[in-house]
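Possible race condition, two jobs.
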Amino acid sequence: MLTERFEISGDDDLDLRSEDEKARAAVTNWMRWQGYLGHLDRWQQAAIWGAVREQTALIRDRQATDEGRGYVQALRKLSALTGVPSLFSRPSIRLAFWMKLRVRLRTHNQ
């Protein structure tokens, strides 16, 4: 019987934590983000959750809606609270966002 060889590359992150440790870390991380969101105004929380749950239209007729502008403002405040730079400051993420948006607009307009 041949044993299967297991290989990882140098840039792989091998997580050696137990399942309990991973679950505990996930809950801790979730609660930390809930705390960050709790520091936002109610309308900013609603804007983020509405977008996450896809309950609000962020763009209509190729223009940002009021909800879309509010969402961006909420993300900016969240970024300032957390010290995590805005995702849109990374060119690769900005490009991916706009490419996805273009596909969505094309699909919507057909």
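Job #2 (started ~2 s after job #1):
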Amino acid sequence: MSQQTQFIVLHISAGFMEDGTPYAGVEVINPYPKSTGMKGNIQYGSPAVKLKLVDRSTGKPNVELARKIEQAGAYLQTVNFEGVWEVGKVKGVEQMTFTILDAQFPHLELNKKAS
């Protein structure tokens, strides 16, 4: 079951490798920074996370969704992503991952209301 989650877009990477294999991903941060410093140390903000952009119908990387994010001017904007949270292993360590299936752009909706 898919869920909505907000992230701020830092970087989009998508296209086709020489053999024709597609790739599509986005690097994001959490829009709600947290202070996680312990014992007097300072750690504030959000680490950058790389997420996959996946076509819901094929399960393959979604280059078109990457183009849609780029054309929306989403760099450093908060974007509502629809996706699926999963537990997976990354380099042998179990982690939560979020696979993105679609995106909505609140900053564009605000621009329409202002004009």
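The mean pLDDT is 87.
Logs attached separately.
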